[in-house]
Amino acid sequence: MKTNKASAARRAQMQGVGLVELMIALVLGLLVVGGAIGMFISNRQTYSATESLGRVQENARVAFELMARDIREAGGNPCASSLPVADVITPSAWQNSWNNGVTGYDNGGLAGSAAGTDAIEVKSGGSSGIGVTHNAGASTFTAASGGTAFKAGDLALVCDYRQAAIFMVATATATAITYNTTARADGTKNCQTDFGLPVVCGGATKAYAFQPSTVITKLRSARWYVADNPRGGRSLYQSVDGLGAQEVVEGVRDMQLTYLMPGGADYVLASAVPNWTQVLAVRITLNMEGGEGQERVGTDTAALRRELFHVVTLRNHSS
Questions:
Q1: How far apart are CA 234 and CA 245, in angstroms?
Q2: pLDDT digits over 95-124, tens only?
Q3: Span 2-26, average pLDDT
Q4: What is the pLDDT of residue 2?
């Protein structure tokens, strides 16, 4: 009798979970798992959005910083702002024509830029160089040292307190930089060896000897514009000294540029600039898109986009 009671007790203790209890446990488990999955997806989307926004902001920062370096120095030379410039280089091309140091283009006006986007072209002689003396008769600039910073075929800007000139270097050593009318492989050459103003290539020339305070530096020409990239998106491109374009920043859908003039109440388009030598500042507006290959985390699963702007003051045009 005792044995039967003990067996019954043991059987009662060994009874399994009922069907209702099992179903309740499964439902609770599914709720927990579903919540965990929802949190994971939400965190993943938040991370993707944050990463995409960070990429957009970083790309914009790089674009603004690099463009600002060129625009800030537009029209500059080591001597003084607003000097008359004798340009003796021929044939004339964007990279060797002074054109007031800065020129803007509206709505795809620059060849190679995307339709509807703006572009800018800047020239400068830099803020540093080497001191030289000028022997106009020998077509030579003599330096104490530093001439090896130049090489044959370089485009250079030389200036004193009265005027500046743009010319092509023929030869360069540590102490002597010479020029002549011999053309380099692409046909670029000096049309004359006199730097007097006005420059008349193929006509009567006027000699000019630079003063003892003369400084020579390399001419820097740069174009900034937006164009389609090989991956199906758009990027910000830079072309320096007439060389091939370089992709600088991806994900730049559009660039709009406006310009501040003396006494102006607001920034104006390039087409409304009356005199490029008087531009005081440039406002750059970039329409940025999340980097190529990133998840589409914007509205309606579109790529994340932001419009950012930056203002650059031209040092050599400030009044």
A1: 14
A2: 998 877 899 999 999 999 999 999 999 999
A3: 67
A4: 55
Indicate the pLDDT class of residue 219, thresholds 50, 70 and 90. very high
Handedness of CA 230, 232, 237, 241 (dihedral sign): positive
Give per-residue pLDDT as tens, 28-60: 878 887 777 777 666 666 656 667 777 888 899
Look at residue 37 in the predicted model and tell me its pLDDT.
Answer: 77
Q: Where are the domains of the chain?
A: 61-313
The answer for residues whose C-beta is within 8 angstroms of residue 198's C-beta and 6 or more apart is 86
The owner of tokens 């270097």 is 169
| DSSP-assigned letters across all residues of the chain | -HHHHHHHHHHHHT----HHHHHHHHHHHHHHHHHHHHHHHHHHHHHHHHHHHHHHHHHHHHHHHHHHHHHHTTT--SS-TT--EEE-EES--GGG--GGGEEEE-TT-STTSPTT--EEEEEE--S--EEEEEEGGGTEEEESS-GGG--TT-EEEEE-SS-EEEEE-SEE-SSEEE--S---TTS-EES-S---SS--TTS--------TT-EEEE-EEEEEEEEE-TTSSEEEEEEETT---EEEEE-EEEEEEEEE-TT-SS-B-GGG-S-GGG--EEEEEEEEEPPTTS---SGGGPPPEEEEEEEEE-TTT--
Burial environment of residue 106 by CB neighbours within 10 A (0 to 12, 13 to 18, 19 or more) = middle
